[in-house]
Design brief:
Layout (H helix, E strand, L loop, with lengths): L1 E2 L2 E8 L2 E8 L3 E5 L13 E3 L6 E7 L5 E6 L4 E6 L5 E8 L2 E7 L5 E8 L7 E8 L5 E6 L7 E7 L5 E8 L3 E9 L5 E7 L19 E9 L5 E11 L15 E11 L5 E7 L4 E9 L5 E12 L4 E10 L5 E8 L3 E9 L5 E8 L3 E8 L5 E7 L6 E8 L5 E10 L5 E10 L7
Parallel strand pairs: 4-25, 16-18
Antiparallel strand pairs: 1-4, 2-3, 5-32, 6-7, 7-8, 8-9, 10-11, 11-12, 12-13, 14-15, 15-16, 16-17, 18-19, 19-20, 20-21, 22-23, 23-24, 24-25, 26-27, 27-28, 28-29, 30-31, 31-32
């Protein structure tokens, strides 16, 4: 079923009257059978080396194993797993939150996250850890010189150094902060990319519960050194969308639109685009496409209410080099579907991973081909043990690996939140 949603808002700013037509792209809603069987993979791995673990990131290593990083209640952790799920070693890395783990060219690893700072008023700052191939810490680096209070990603550069990406939060925007280090962790340069103030004209309505806001969610560096930024603009709008039978309506509705920006190598503005039309579209992931374009993954809420369940959906959108929509596909079902991870597989397709459920949660995956045609959907979990998919990465052979959380028996005999790993082949079958 294809639908085109058209809506309009009227904004008043001083003496300027703007009438904006918000047009959403056509999309297909794929209804998923609630009675689809939940797959219980025979090769799922449940790992725990201590207290409750909240895994955040995973990557396949060159020898066919995996590295996982996340947080416990007190610090960052990193697990090294072999190709059959055995825990080889685990490290406590200090800090408070891990955002990304990557194997680098010398056979070692970097883990990017956050740690507390005694010198910053905001307390949190970006934190980068370099380890050798055996898991020994080579060096660590905080970034107290920056205003960034969150760390979201890190990657190795062609010269052997590293770039760490964080966020600088202001009243109405969260900007991008990039820090480039040398191979030994010494700082080479920093960049502050402003996303622009999400200034929204006043509607003479009380907005104590929310301020208009724009935030960068993901950043991609192109082969030319330019930057593609994807995020969201949150704003009150008029006319009001009634939600959940709320009558009479006494305050403006709130909408989140997907938002894109392209900058040149010096972080100068090149173009931007937005994607209104849904009640809520929140971009959570982006990838470089093989043809020079981009692909985004977003959470979508159409504001549909059935009395017990809220319909939420996952939208995958393909963009050309100028940020125009080539195709988009929406996956929706009767329970909340929250996607957190996004990857491009060897065959050129795209996989979104997350969790589905209302009271009980299971790991959910959907895959489309390079043209947006649905290939398969899968649901994984254990009876009586809720599970969540947090991140997904492509692996050799065209498949993917999902890391998340499951409430299960820990290695020490107690029960708690453990790291959950499932490997999937190109056709959606557990390996």
């Amino acid at each position: 079923m294809s639908r085109l949603r058209v809506s309009a808002w009227i904004c008043v700013s001083g003496t300027l009257l703007c009438i904006l037509l918000l047009v959403g792209c056509p999309y297909d809603v794929i209804e998923e059978n609630e009675n689809d069987p939940i797959v219980h993979p025979s090769t799922e791995w449940i790992i725990s080396a201590g207290p409750d673990e909240h895994a955040a990131t995973i990557q396949q290593t060159t020898d066919g194993g995996y590295v996982v990083a996340g947080k416990t209640s007190s610090s960052m952790f990193m697990h090294r797993i072999d190709g059959v799920g055995n825990l080889l070693w685990t490290k406590d890395l200090g800090g408070v939150l891990a955002a990304r783990v990557r194997q680098v060219r010398d056979g070692g690893y970097i883990v990017a996250g956050e740690m507390y700072s005694e010198t910053k008023a905001a307390r949190e700052m970006m934190y980068l850890v370099k380890l050798d191939g055996q898991g020994n810490v080579t060096w660590t680096r905080g970034f107290p010189e920056s205003d960034a209070t969150s760390c979201l990603d890190a990657w190795e550069t062609a010269d052997g150094g590293y770039v760490v990406r964080g966020g600088i939060k202001y009243a109405r925007q969260t900007d991008v902060y990039l820090a480039k280090t040398n191979e030994d962790g010494s700082l080479r340069w920093t960049k502050h990319i402003s996303v622009g103030n999400a200034a929204v004209p006043s509607l003479n309505q009380p907005l104590r519960y929310l301020e208009p806001f724009r935030a960068a969610a993901t950043v991609l560096e192109t082969a030319e050194g330019e930057y593609f930024i994807a995020g969201n603009t949150l704003a009150p709008v008029w006319p009001i969308w009634p939600r959940y039978g709320e009558f009479p309506i006494t305050r403006p509705s709130v909408v989140s639109c997907g938002w894109l920006e392209k900058t040149d190598i010096a972080a100068n503005f090149v173009w931007q685009n937005t994607f209104p039309g849904s009640k809520w579209e929140e971009i959570r992931g982006s990838l470089l496409a093989g043809d020079g374009g981009y692909v985004t993954m977003a959470m979508v809420d159409e504001g549909i209410y059935t009395g017990s369940n809220i319909f939420e959906a996952v939208r995958i959108r393909k963009l050309d080099e100028e940020g125009n929509t080539a195709w988009c596909r929406t996956f929706q079902q009767a329970h909340t579907f929250e996607a957190n991870g996004f990857c491009r597989t060897e065959d050129g397709g795209y996989v979104a991973a997350g969790n589905v459920g209302f009271h009980e949660y299971y790991v959910q995956l959907v895959k489309v081909d390079e043209n947006g045609h649905p290939l398969w959907t899968r649901r994984f979990g254990r009876d009586g043990q809720w599970g969540k998919g947090v991140a997904v990465e492509a692996i050799e052979g065209g498949g993917c690996v999902v890391v998340g959380e499951v409430h299960a028996k820990r290695m020490d005999g107690g029960y708690g939140i453990c790291t959950y790993v499932v490997r999937i082949d190109a056709d959606g079958n557990p390996l």
